[in-house]
């Protein structure tokens, strides 16, 4: 119920305030802060979260169907989409690498011999 509540709040905020951010993202951020500041406990959403993780392929199915139903609109831009996806992958790997190195050096020290 908490996950649904935060999703509805996020969608409402996104719609009412006409934000360029999807309501589901706003809801996830609000849920994160509620967990971070201990307004709700992890055990209260653990079972539902586990269920969603185990069934993630079903949850992403509507996005795949949406892409296929609008294929005629995006098919002429396929190479731009591939370039953007590949660049995003490279940027993500680089950022994750730098953050991991920063955390390792900052909090664990440097163990080079």
TrEMBL record:
Localization in the cell: Cell membrane
Primary location class: membrane
Keywords: Cell membrane, Membrane, Transmembrane, Transmembrane helix
Record's bilayer topology term: Multi-pass membrane protein
Pfam families to which the protein is assigned, alphabetical: LrgA
Isomerase keyword on record: no
Residues passing through the membrane, by range: 20-39, 51-71, 77-103
Protein name per the record: LrgA
Organism lineage string: Bacteria, Bacillati, Bacillota, Bacilli, Lactobacillales
């Amino acid at each position: 119920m908490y996950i649904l509540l935060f999703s509805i709040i996020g969608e409402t905020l996104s719609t009412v305030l006409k934000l360029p951010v999807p309501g589901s993202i706003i809801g996830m951020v609000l849920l994160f802060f509620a967990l971070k500041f201990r307004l709700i406990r992890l055990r209260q959403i653990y079972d539902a979260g586990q269920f969603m993780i185990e069934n993630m392929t079903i949850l992403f199915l509507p996005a795949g169907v949406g892409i296929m139903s609008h294929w005629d609109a995006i098919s002429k831009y396929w190479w731009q989409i591939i370039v953007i996806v590949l660049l995003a992958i490279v940027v993500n790997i680089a950022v994750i690498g730098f953050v991991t190195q920063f955390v390792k050096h900052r909090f664990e020290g440097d163990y080079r011999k």
